[in-house]
Amino acid sequence: MVLLNDLTQRLQIDDPEERRSISNVSWAQYEALLADLEDTSHYRVSYLDGVLEIVSPSRRHESGKTQIGTFLEIYFLETDTEYFPTGSTTLRKEEQQAGTEPDESYCIGTDKEFPDLAIEVVVTSGGINRLELYRRLGVREVWFWQNNQFSMYHLREEAPAQFAQTFGYEAISHSEILPDLDMNLLAAGVRNPNPLAAAKEFRQGVREQRS
Fold first, then answer.
1. Helix axes 183-191, 195-210, angle to 10 degrees
2. What is the per-residue pLDDT for 39?
3. Which three-class secondary structure state does DSSP give residue 80?
4. Is 4 helix (H, G, I), strand (E, B) or coil?
5. Sheet holding 117-121, edge to edge
6. Residue 102: in which H helix or E strand, if any?
């Protein structure tokens, strides 16, 4: 088990975003590490079936997830959509041996124990399978932002075997929990290197689509 005072040293290498996986970790050890890291929000921790994954996000990662969150909140306000932001709250179920901290997450319509939507910004690939992890947590929809584009998945609880290769999720081109959201408009905003201009253009685009 990695010790907290050893963690920072292990993650300090040339790559500004580093991912470490540790096997044979008990649930009690996972929860103990979460408690130790409670005041150190820089690290993101995930757990699945005894595998612990610790990520030190890069600036590019944090910029992307913050921009997506900004645009979604603009969308919620402009469309009068009831939403409850849950951010990077630690989500975990001991009976499912699964836990993680999404980059952004939201409950839509009503507040719930687990979010309807989880968003992941992928800078370095590999590690724990995020769809399997979110399936065990019961998250209805998962978005990945990778290589300047979105890939989205919706949980099909009524036909999980049909989508076994994607762990019960179906790849979708438009959000089912936010069906009126123009994903092309959202992606264009995230790709824009000027955050203020991007936010203004996104807001204007939403308004034009609703007029």
1. 160
2. 64
3. coil
4. helix
5. 83-85, 104-108, 117-121, 141-146, 149-155, 169-172
6. none
Q: Which of 132, 80, 157, 89 is nearest to 142 (CA)?
A: 132
Across-strand partners of 55? 19, 44
Closest to 18 in 3D by CA, of 56, 61, 47, 48: 56
Q: Which domain holds residue 107?
A: 59-210
In this model, does residue 143 exceed pLDDT 90?
A: yes
Number of domains in the chain: 2
Q: Is the dihedral of CA 131, 65, 102, 186 positive or negative?
A: negative
CA distances from 211 to 88, 181, 189 (A): 34, 14, 20
202, burial (CB in 10 Å: exposed 0-12, middle 13-18, buried 19+): buried
Per the prediction, the chain carries an average pLDDT of 90
My answer on whether 153 and 91 are in the same domain is: yes
Q: How confident is the model over 51-81, as pLDDT tens digits?
A: 999 988 888 888 899 999 999 999 999 999 9
Q: What is the CATH number of the domain that holds 99?
A: 3.90.1570
